[in-house]
Amino acid sequence: MANIVTGIGTSHVPSVGAVIDNNKEQDPYWKPLFDGYQPARDWIQDNMPDVAIVVYNDHASAFGLNLIPTFTLGVAEEFPPADEGYGPRKVPTAVGDPDLAWHLAESLILDEFDMTIANEMSVDHGCTVPLSIMFDKPEQWPCKIIPLCVNVIQYPPPTGKRCFDLGKAIRKAVEAYDKDIKVAIFGTGGMSHQLQGERAGLVNAEFDQSFLDRLTTDPVGLTKIPHVEYMREAGSEGIELVMWLIMRGAMGDEATETYKFYHVPASNTGAGLIVLEDGSQK
Amino acid sequence: MNREYRDIPGTYVMDGQHCRKGYHLNMFCMSLNKAENRDEFRKDEAAYLEKFKLTDEQKKAVLERDWLGMLRLGGNIYYTFKLAIFDGRSMQFVGGAMSDVTEEEFRQMMIAGGRPVEGNRSKKEQEQSNG
Ligand SMILES: [Fe+2]
Q: I need a surface site. Which of A44, A45, A64, A246 has the fewest CB within 10 A?
């Protein structure tokens, strides 16, 4: 049987990808961030999953306003990096796991989560930056990738509770998969930030740190945060944090925190990273 | 429909009404994902805009790079930022332009911890404190 053994929560700030691509990690502005990432990078090398389900949002790259699916699961053989306006990032094409992805799609839909299925999809910084944060600059990503794209741009995104419940259904589906593999799930985006309007630049470190703490102490409480509270307290784009709750739901009740890090600023955001492990295995 | 979020200052939430208003503006911005479209836009911006059903106000906001104006006319930052990418501008530049400071001032604000949430939670609260 397959197991979800690792949960990663991380921001997916595009400029962090650019810093990695241009080898600027040691610049004084960026060094504290990358110093904070290092323990998680070291840890995952010793705990490499076979497959990573990456929960992220697309930013007007693969999806426009013409079709706005709430949850899209990528079942393709591979997912090339998208051209977001600068030409595609020079990172490896993500190799999918169509067998597990189709198992997930079928299981989730029969479990009443009406997923959109993507047979062709490019992935933007939302998906590729978390991979760079965890895996640095390999020739190929060290595991297979299943992208799970969530609409958080068009209001309303799915509720935190819906995301959490989807995570639980993902866990159930993975545990019913017949191959003996280790699966990680990444919840990405956020943390507090607002890119738009006269309130651009808003960061709420207190909100972010409390969110990180409550991922282990009070995850169910987090699922009750309404959209307006995310927008008000964590900035209009801070609502991306609902995606972390898919990851959290998938980690089950006994998840334990292995590592946590927070830093302001990464570009225009509060940047967080958390590593959760499946406590039920211990 | 509860639209309590309209009370958040300086924030243009992409709800259905906003999407309807800005659909063509945003889809023009997204077209700049393609290199051939960027080339065509570069050659003659106004002519390229004619391919999309923008209002005259929206066209003007695009040509003048009125970043806040675009949001007010239905733009969404993830889309309008495609135009900033086209211009080689950073998110700090655009953030500064929308909040009326320079790119460097905006960058310094971020280094100092960002714009505080205190005093920026609600329009009602701001009006009360301004007496
Ligand atoms: Fe994002």
A: A45
- Tell me, yes or no, if B70 comes closer than 8 A to chain A by beta carbon: no
Predicted complex ipTM: 0.96
Residue A202 Cα, gap to closest chain B Cα (Å):
4
A125 catalytic residue (yes or no):
yes
Instruction: State the Cα–Cα distance between residues B46 and B54, nearest whole angstrom.
Output: 11
Tokens 């990528």 belong to residue = A74
Distance between CA atoms of A249 and A164, rounded to whole angstroms? 4
Q: A64: which DSSP letter?
A: -
A64, amino acid identity? G
Q: Do B27 and A65 touch (CB under 8 A)?
A: yes
Distances (CA, A) of A110 to A164, A169, A240, A247: 17, 10, 26, 20
DSSP-derived 3-state class of residue A270 = strand
Are A202 and A269 a contacting pair, CB within 8 Å? no
What pLDDT score was predicted for residue A281?
62
Give dist(CA A169, CA A161) in Å, integer. Answer: 12
pLDDT, tens digit, 9 for 90 and up, residues A115-126: 999 999 999 999
Q: How far apart are CA B80 and CA B92, in angstroms?
A: 14
DSSP state of A2: -
Q: Give residue for tokens 């944060």.
A: A133
Please report how many Cα atoms fall inside a 13 Å half-sphere around the Cα of residue A61, on the Cβ side. Answer: 26
A59 annotated active-site: no
User: pLDDT tens digits for A114-154?
Assistant: 999 999 999 999 999 999 999 999 999 999 999 999 999 99
CA trace torsion A76, A14, A222, B124 (10° rounding) = -130
Q: pTM above the 0.95 mark?
A: yes
* φ, ψ dihedrals at A167, nearest 5°: -60, -45
